Amino acid sequence: MDQPTLYEQSVPGRVGVALPDCDVPQSALPQHLIRDDNGLPELSEQQVVRHYLRLSQRNFGVDTGFYPLGSCTMKHNPRIGEQMARLPGFAALHPLQDEAAAQGALELMFELQEALKEIGGFDAVALQPTAGAQGELTALLMMRAWHAARGEGDRDEVLIPDTAHGTNPASASMAGCVAVEIPSNPRGGVDLAALRAACSDRVVGIMLTNPNTLGLFEEEIGAVAGIVHGCGGLVYGDGANMNALTGIARPGELGIDLMHFNLHKTFATPHGGGGPGAGPLGARADLAPFLPAPIVHHVADDDRYTLASPPSSIGRMSAFNGNFGMFVRAYAYLRGLGAEGLHRNAMHAVLNANYLRVGLRGDYPLPYDRTCMHEFVCEGRPTGSEVRAIDVSKRLMDFGMHPPTNYFPLTVPEALMIEPTESETKATLDAFVAAMRDIAREARETPELLREAPHATPVRRLDEVRAARDLILCEPRAGEA
Amino acid sequence: MTRAPHSDRERQEMLAAIGVARLEDLFADIPEEVRFPALDLPPALSEMELAAELRRLAARNDSLEDGPSFLGAGSYRHFIPATVDDVLQRGEFYTAYTPYQPELSQGMLQAMFEYQSMICRLTGMEVSNASHYDGATSLAEAVLLALNAAKGDRSRIVLSPSVHPHYREVVATYLRGLDAEQVVPGDRSVAARDLAAHVDGDTAALVIQTPNFFGRLEDLDGLAEAVHAKGALLIVLADPISLGLFRPPGALGADVVVADGQPLGISPSFGGPSLGIFATRRAHVRQLATREQHIRRARATSNICTNSALGALAAATYLATLGRQGLRRVAELCHHKAHYAAARLGEIPGLSVSPDAPDAPFFKEFVLELPHPAAEVNARLRTEHGITGGYDLGRACPGWENRMLIAVTETNSRAEIDALVSALRRLTA
Fold it and tell me: Do A366 and A459 lie in a common domain?
């Protein structure tokens, strides 16, 4: 490592911040419970600041450059959201504060619930789930509870298209269900014959991502919903790709019964290097009683907001009110755009993706070369070359861009999933196409240049297989192997 | 607010390249009857108006900076050194996503490695993951780990009644779909070590919290051995600040240590985002593997994908800034100030401190019994004295309407504590 670790920089006796003297009489410590050494490193403030600044320079974010990571919606994070989330009235608000002294926070949550209901076409929204995958689990637990309330608690099969995010089957297992994979048809949508064959009185429902991970709108959404509803199942929407549909179509009007939103994708809250996110859940009226607790209600009589648990709630998904700090940022995004701005942004997310799709045509095979939504998938093996998607990805780093999502969905060989988002300029999109075309030429003429890439990053290509096999998760203490 | 930046001319060039005339033509796949709904949302605000609106909402909340507060119960006011927000505002960190491409993520990966190293040392454990959503979901995943480790042979989870009630609710939610039951034996004043008797051959894990929900420091000596003798795992929910001073659960035989990381440099923010700390033994390391769902799909050990990386970065910066001596000092200050508050409040006639276990050691929280309902006392503390009182235990513990949980940290000055004492003396006279 070029930057020494905190422990390597530690010198006994240093403290990075001064703490106050004790202004009360000291009391005896329970000596039998006291430890000698808590094992933390010891650094000065300057060391800490310089350390993390140097680490940040070895990291790539949306602020650094183009980040077309498919299905992750790496759009610009407006700074006003950051500034507002840090207001003491939000950041220093205790989750158990008396409701009378937290009316502003509750009003914000209520208005966010209302906006998500309107955008999604749902009758109720719970903000509690802390990330998309937790939204999935929440929805599945609700679906099982809904069936159980109708005397059909034995249903345990969840239908999942083969293009679905891997979290879908993982969530199904956590909900005690069996995941049943549904193949895609040649146009990239759900194979209706296979879906019909899989439907039975064992089915909890289907987990449907629309647009799917190929970036294609599920054309037969009405038929899919009809078939699943026909066997008594529910249609759950994975809202990961909602950035294509905001102001374009309401999932609730497409036959989707409940769906999670990803505030860290669609509503521009920052991804944080891997979280925190937020995964609010919208639901149809008959599913609303099962939503997780708590939900904000407005009491019209005395114009106040209050938290309450839905009557048949599946319970809590996190300790308090969900990721409130993300609600502030998402609410700022919504209010800053209004209905027209949201609609425009979705349109331009789709415009940008289609512009890149036609830009790569000829150099990168496009298995589904038709109008896409906010993202599309190409094969990362340029026409007439033998390189792999990973080689193209690593080479793209040398052009100062983050690679697209690699090797997903699994249904496309050497997949590159590309999502530009609406916030990028045409100049950036043109630079990406130019870089990808250069790389395709290199792949044909000097493929070793790609196989040895990246060349311009802080470290050269890393062996991820070995890293996953020989796990070192913690720095050994001095003297340890 | 950020809008698509294209000029009309650029947009026309792009549409021409694609081969369509208008933006609307890109949406022909969407059923016409539901296409382009007119959304009924408030009108767009300029950034200036937006800031004013959000400041209006923020002003309707009593923040912990507005006056003395003794509210804890799982979320705490602790001092946050200036370094923390400085690091969090680096765009290279907070606008990145999960390190899918290690060559472009060396900074975050090293920061997470160092976070894990510090968590291992603090908890006394061998491995740590890179974070969970919050303490409650960390605990729920620890319970799932125990059930998986038992390979379906054990279906009971014994939870101490003094585990945070919201955390018990989250565990119950996570167990809904599985063939497992949660058992909460004994009364609220039971000591953790007496819970070993409830662990049987069908129990996958015993879950205890220390300091527990009521502030009491549990004595874990011999507990892990007793639990292991029954073939079960010991899961310990800890307060990360307390680990700066007190013996770590890892040194006492715990199999999984979880904690809510909010006290480590993360603002309360009405309950989230927080940070879930999760550390365990090397024997369970393969169950920590996450972000592999795209390969393992239904066989993945967890569905967690987006976690709380930025929270872990905040905690790492906090721990690095305070260091070995600083964290110990913060823990000592919490201890001394909480004990001072308890002693002063105990002098007030009619009030009783830790009525069920007056001699048990405690850390930064304790139960205070009042002659009146805590809800009434808190309302008067707030409106008449400008003080945010303790957590009204009647909200979570039926029958304890006259009790509150007082939290005292290094941020509470002696003057604040004395103000609480004199206010309560007047309100309960």
Answer: yes
